[in-house]
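Sanity check. The docking grid for 2H-imidazol-4-ylacetic acid depends on where the pocket ends up, so I'm generating a full predicted complex first rather than guessing from homology. Inputs follow.
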Amino acid sequence: MLDTLIFASQIVVPAGEGRALRGAEMNKLKVIDNGAVGIKDGKIAFVGTREEAADLKANETIDAEGKLLSPGLVDPHTHLVFGGSREHELALKQQGVPYLEILAQGGGILSTVRATRETTEDALFEKAMFHLNRCLTYGVTTMEAKSGYGLDKETELKQLRVAKKLNESHPMDLVSTFLGAHAIPENYKGRPDAFLEEMLSMLSVISKEGLAEFVDIFCETGVFSVEQSRTFLQKAKTAGFGVKIHADEIDPLGGTEMACEIGAVSADHLVGASKEGVRMLGESDTIAVLLPGTTFYLGKDHFAPAREMISSGAAVALSTDFNPGSSPTENIQFIMNLAALKLKMTPEEIWNAVTVNAAYAIGRGDVAGSLIKGRNADLVLWDVPNYKYVPYHYGVNHVNRVWKNGVLVAGKADSHANYTLSS
Ligand code: IZC
Ligand code: ZN
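Predicted complex below; grid placement will be based on this.
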């Protein structure tokens, strides 16, 4: 006897074969028309067609005729825990002041650092919880959360502890990344190497308290150079962490190549990745995490070369980059729209990029991002007739209901339950 059996007009079943999908594989997406998914004890217990499910019995049966069912989405790059907000910077942006100039003047990331230092752990927890709930309503059931708004030991640990507590108390699975190397704080101005040493000295306590799995760095003009980033990440790797990098987001410094050379789990942004960087991505296991929402919000016309990356054989994932400065949005569906319009990715590539590949980008490919018997029953029911519809109809939330580990966590059992979009 199953706990729940859900019938839907179409089911998205990304392959989860033990690694991320790369190159031309990304354009293949298994879908089951008129399918069914069974849940037992919080795990996927059945995936197949309506006919194959005919004899199955369940305590609860949901007939979602006209709707799409998919795995819970995975958002692999967010700056979830922060104090304050930066709406005052929008006017500066409109006047043409560049992102890195705002940072150089002590604003941007440093403005959020001041606010985060001033916010209590409890208040940070409540604020992040608010955003986390919103992410869930957009269909995300697993996501990454970075620190990086402390830039001192006390506040970095405060952020990481908030993420840990959220992971323990919220249905979302949160994967934690230490981004102490996010900017150079005022008291270390002109002494980036000394600051990086200070952040490295935190790794033992982070490791001991289980506060992060990954270490990340912002490799950018005026922040950390490629060589500083390489040394820093290599030390983090030696200390047992998986490593990630904010690379070639604004200026093309060559962080993409370095990420491939040191075996980073992911290299993120990559807007300015060189031809050589793109070629190397195609030959390495480093996953390219693209964040078109950030490029859009920074008002740039040039987006990451996703097509070249996929042609070179790279594995591409997509993410919101949710943060209070360069990408204030929890809406991963809008990122799917931008991936279609600005990165020219196909609907199949986009679905693989927000499920299986995003899961591998944060070390969760074995439990999330696919619909395979035995995996976590993380599911999204969509008010759309087919998978191509989500990247197409933009700016709204298409989610009807979300299940995490088999439990309904967003949407209501009766919300739009009988509503189907007529074709
Ligand atoms: O707060 O501006 N790029 N870090 C690197 C960010 C964007 C987040 C922010
Ligand atoms: Zn980021």
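Relevant for the grid: The chain has a mean pLDDT of 96.
Also worth noting: The radius of gyration is 21 Å.
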